[in-house]
Amino acid sequence: MSKFLKFTRKSKHYCSRPPSRMSAHMPVCWSVLVCLLFFAVAIFYLIQVNGMATLGFKLENLETRAQELERMNKKLESSVAELKSLSHIREVTQGLGMVEVGIVEYISTDDISVAIK
Hints:
This protein has two helices and no strands. The chain is mostly helical. It has a domain at 29-95. The longest helix is centred in the middle third of the chain and has 64 residues, at 21-84.
């Protein structure tokens, strides 16, 4: 007889144990564990999808706000350019009653003199 066929049901060394209670409940335990794992993964998935949807809405709002700010910035830049223009400055000075400077005379002192109290 071969060493591989030594322990068969017909041999006297074969040990046939009745299934214990633990092994009888193992398929039930595994199915409960698989169901719990499935529900945990499903809940995790729903939380992730909800978070991604929320972030998507926030991103869309931020992009809209950025476009709005870019438009406002362009308007302000054009307004600054208009206010700095020479024609606008002339209009404002005439409106305030200012006149152009004629001949400018500078005072030069040859002596350095300081007033003392």
